[in-house]
Amino acid sequence: MQRRRLAHPLPPDFFQCPVLTSSEADAMIASGVDALKHLVMHARLDDTSAYKWKLERATQDLQVYVGSDLTKSKGTVVFMSVTELHATLDEAASLLECDTSDSYRTFIQRYNKDVIDCAVLATLAPRTPTYPRNYIGLKWFVQETPLPCRNRDFCVVEVRL
């Protein structure tokens, strides 16, 4: 059986996601929040962190690190980006507001040049007037890889609190 290659970007209606049950959505939210708490607690570049951080890429304005969690299985990998913004907290938070596929695609095109396609699959916890910076969603993206590897796609739970 021959695999067909998909042309990117995929059409907006490509993903027909099943409706999540409350318990499935709650489990994804809990997993994402736990991962965020763990990352924030260990996002230090010194030897006190449970992560072993390696500088993957650096430009004048941005450093990207890949981390291995020394307390978990070898398959656990996290990423951290470091930059400096001259902005208020509200201005900085607005840079990350990509809750729709269109705004997510715009964000990716601007900041992630190696990502060739993306989509918002589901919003698990939308922003609210009480918590305008908070958002939890299920997202998909395809990262371009060098030959001879095929491009890789990922589904992630994005948590902004």
From TrEMBL:
Gene3D superfamilies xrefs: 3.30.530.20
Database matches in InterPro entries: Rab4/Rab5_effector (IPR052727), START-like_dom_sf (IPR023393)
PANTHER family associated with the record: FYVE-FINGER-CONTAINING RAB5 EFFECTOR PROTEIN RABENOSYN-5-RELATED, RABENOSYN-5
Protein name (database record): START domain-containing protein
